[in-house]
Specification:
Number of helices: 12
Distance between the termini: 19 Å
Largest sheet: none
Structural class: mainly alpha
Oligomer: single chain
Length: 289
Amino acid sequence: MGLAFVFMWSSAFTSARMIVADAPPLAALSLRFLVAGVIGVTIARTMGQSWSLTRAQWRSVAVFGFCQNALYLGLNFVAMRKIEAGLASIVASSMPLLVALLGWLFRGQRVRPLGIAGLVAGFAGVALIMGSRLSGAGVDPMSLALCAIGATALAVATLTVGGTGATGNVLMIVGLQMFVGSAVLGIASALTEVIAVHWTLRLVLAFLYTTFIPGLLATWIWFKLVARIGPVRAATFHFLNPFFGVTIGALLLGETLKLTDAVGVAIVMAGILAVQLSRGEPAATRPTP
């Protein structure tokens, strides 16, 4: 589940780069969430899922929709007009450290020594890849800052997922949080963007792929994964974003693929292994079933 999620999630950086080349980023993302939300809720209702959620679930839907969809993805879409998809995925992969830090500060969650070593190794691998990338010319600092803010928002959303519970309403919850992102980004687009679209086949295909695969399927898998192993351990899979993000960007967009990328990914994978081999979180910190 973790590998499937991170592959689909990382591929969204490349498809997003294709979209923002021909359409305003916030408007395109708002439309994507609207379409995905309608489809997700419709399928959920067909499956017998209810939108009568608990108060904690509604709060999670609102926070997750705002933090992940509006802030994290919105800021990344804007940033990818000026930076490569691979670099954006590298910044996003620092999120597990933020999840562990926020979990420790605000939820009293503990990370065992082997897990801490894995997190440090993962960050070191990310730092190696990023350092190599930043040494080149043409990297826009403001766009990097937007990606960093987005990663922090995603960390908050990740910790919030545990509050939704594994109640069988997962697809309904996914669809509803899409509507939250669509509404927020629609307002932001109306206030800041001029709608001008250059219609191409690549734009249409990238939009459809991003809507159905990273948008609906990957988000559904993410909810299931967090419910199964907890937010801190699940978040470590984001350390694989540099590998998949850089590789997919290189294959489809011709972005640079360096030897340091491969070395960094090897370190990252060692970090993930260490975290997954460490004991799970204490029962008190696991998501409530």
